[in-house]
Design a protein that fits this description.
The complex is a heterodimer of chains A (221) and B (87). Chain A has 221 residues and is mainly α. Chain A has eleven helices and no strands. The chains are: A mainly alpha (221), B mainly alpha (87).
């Protein structure tokens, strides 16, 4: 009996759709100042989606501003068929891809579907003495950097799916829609991305984990 | 049905997302109860994803929000002026 009983990955509360619809209608009707309120819950999501694709703080901030400006200018075109957050993240993904192409980074890391989409073996890091790493370890700058580095090292087609699904918590359909791929591909790429992260990070985290149990160990529980 | 570890690894992501069909879920649960390696892989994957998604892992640059809204405000004002015409 090795496995602790735990639920699925945690999720955040969804934004209130009705309030958003109302805000959008009022902005289109002329109360443009409400746009600040509309986008406030998504500032982080837009920045993060772009940052993880571009891997450059300054460019990500500039691109995030452009995305929000574009959303403001095209808000009348938002039909409400998708959630506002999905619409926004689609603009963000497109802006990041556009910049990648412009920088010719795309030549080195193709965003196109590649042979990586074929079935293949993704062997995780095999551990037998894994113990839970408490979130207090994130107080250490070095630990946060290590996690970000691992995400950065993922090939772009896996990274973008992981970010939208596990960091932004979009569902499969929303992720597929934002990336312009089908749901099956989202599932395949997400699985591989997660396994790659596990392989990169599990041995490192285990090596830096606080001592197991005991008096001091319990302080981390 | 007895599953091999490799077969369990192929379904870790679906397991975390609760997307397995009931029969396979049962087989995997049974395997996990007796396999230290697969349990450790599952727990480490889940834990790594929780840590990666933690807001402290990715922090917004200082002043990001202020700069964003200042730039937006400028765009909003410009649009208002162009719609209303010269004063």
């Amino acid at each position: 009996m090795y496995r602790k009983e735990k639920g699925a990955l945690p999720t955040r509360m969804p934004a209130t759709v009705e309030r958003e619809k109302e805000l959008i209608a009022r902005i289109i009707a002329g109360e443009t100042n409400l746009f600040h309120e509309l986008i406030r819950p998504y500032e982080r999501m837009v920045y993060l989606s772009i940052l993880t694709m571009l891997r450059n703080d300054q460019e990500a901030e500039d691109a995030a501003q452009e995305v929000m400006i574009s959303a403001f200018r095209h808000l009348k075109g938002f039909r409400g068929e998708a959630k506002f957050s999905t619409w926004l993240v689609t603009i963000a993904v497109n802006e990041a891809r556009r910049r990648l192409r412009k920088a010719k980074t795309a030549q080195m890391e193709s965003l196109d579907e590649t042979k990586e989409d074929r079935e293949g073996d993704f062997t995780p890091a095999v551990l037998t003495d894994w113990r839970e790493i408490p979130s207090v370890v994130l107080e250490k700058k070095e630990m946060r950097q290590k996690l970000r580095d691992a995400v950065e090292q993922l090939p772009p087609i896996y990274r973008e799916v992981l970010v939208l699904r596990d960091l932004e918590e979009l569902n499969q359909q929303e992720t597929a829609s934002a990336l312009g791929i089908n749901v099956t591909l989202v599932k395949v790429r997400l699985h591989r991305a997660r396994m790659m992260l596990q392989k990169m990070l599990a041995p490192y985290l285990r090596a830096t984990a606080p001592a197991r149990k005991g008096f001091f160990g319990r302080m981390f529980q | 049905m007895t599953l091999e570890c490799k077969h369990v690894w192929e379904h870790i992501s679906e397991y975390l997302d609760r997307q397995l069909d009931p029969k396979l879920l049962m087989d995997i649960e049974r395997h996990l109860e007796n396999c230290e390696v697969c349990s450790a892989i599952l727990d480490s994957t889940r834990n790594i994803l929780v840590l990666t998604a933690d807001e402290r892992t990715y922090e917004l640059p200082l002043g990001y929000s202020e700069r964003l809204h200042a730039r937006l405000e400028k765009v909003i004002r410009e649009q208002e002026q162009s719609e209303n015409g010269p004063a």
